[in-house]
Amino acid sequence: MNILILGAGGLGCELLKNVSMMVIRQEIQVNKITIIDMDTIELTNLNRQFMFTDEDIGLNKSEVAAKYISNKFKKMVNVVPIVQDLTLLNKEFYQDFQLILSGLDSVEARRYVNQICVQIAYESQFNSIIPLIDGGLESLKGHVKLIIPGVTACWECSISTLPTQGTTENSTGPKIGNVPLCTIATNPRSIEHVIEHVYIKALENSDKDKDKQNFYLHENWDQDDNVIKRLFRECEERAIRYNIPRDQLTIHHMLGIMKRIIPNVCTTNAMIAAECCMELYKIYNDLIDFEGEPKNFLMMNGNRGQFYYKFTYQRDPRCPVCNIIP
């Protein structure tokens, strides 16, 4: 079996570690684990992406993660890294895998891979079905979605369950919303990525220079015009550097994003990755009753105690992706 892991961030590192240990313990037999990520390692990643160290900053995440596993397990696990935007890879690439584990923080990338899996199943008349196990998290909350094209709901069927991003109406200004922080991309793809990066770097500088004059993210920084102008100028400069459109970049939008950044929690990463790999184990050992209604959706909430809920999420007959499947 060939397994594809999408993302080498906080969740992706946990997925790679778990799958590698399952191979070492001979719980599953895997010919190749491919891990794909287009980003490079930053200082802010190190609090939760345990495969990386200070010396790895600036290097490609997938390559460092693959090297870590190779060194840790003495090349007993075959891990192939790919540094590329996964939405640029065609259907033929994905057909090489028997199962896909997703640790992505991008909605569009998830939608793309989901569509590819449904397309492969449909065009092969279900002779080739690639299970997609999607993990996602936001601070102390998380989910696991098991997607079997033609059997369960696809990823697109449940898109309405995602937290609203950029669509919450604010009475005093433009539409703003929560922006989950999983990684700060070195190849930013939106103005939100730009704002996140500037904010995190400002926090780092503030922590380092607490007793110096250039400590500018003080307790009431969002009420200080000089601080706000400086942050806005840095956002403009970074957006220009990476050719990111600035039509949505306003001071109000910037503050809305910065004050709503949701931190990533390493414990949640580990728990969601464990649940994803449990689904992998059950698929591999034929422990899921696909003739009935398999419980394909898990919700976790650790904000107050520990809440787990697993249930069957039904296919949406109006889904624009999987409605081609009878």
Automatic annotation (TrEMBL):
Protein's UniProt keywords contain Ligase: yes
Limits of the THIF-type NAD/FAD binding fold domain: 2-320
Source organism, top-level taxon: Eukaryota
GO BP annotation list: protein neddylation
Active-site residues (renumbered): C182 (glycyl thioester intermediate)
Keywords assigned: ATP-binding, Ligase, Nucleotide-binding, Ubl conjugation pathway
Catalysed reactions, semicolon-separated: ATP + [NEDD8 protein] + [E1 NEDD8-activating enzyme]-L-cysteine = AMP + diphosphate + [E1 NEDD8-activating enzyme]-S-[NEDD8 protein]-yl-L-cysteine
The protein, known as: NEDD8-activating enzyme E1 catalytic subunit
Main function: Catalytic subunit of the dimeric E1 enzyme, which activates NEDD8.
EC number: 6.2.1.64
GO molecular function annotations of the record: ATP binding; NEDD8 activating enzyme activity
InterPro entries registered for this protein in UniProt: ThiF/MoeB/HesA, ThiF_NAD_FAD-bd, Ub_act_enz_dom_a_sf, Ubiquitin-activating_enz, UBQ-activ_enz_E1_Cys_AS
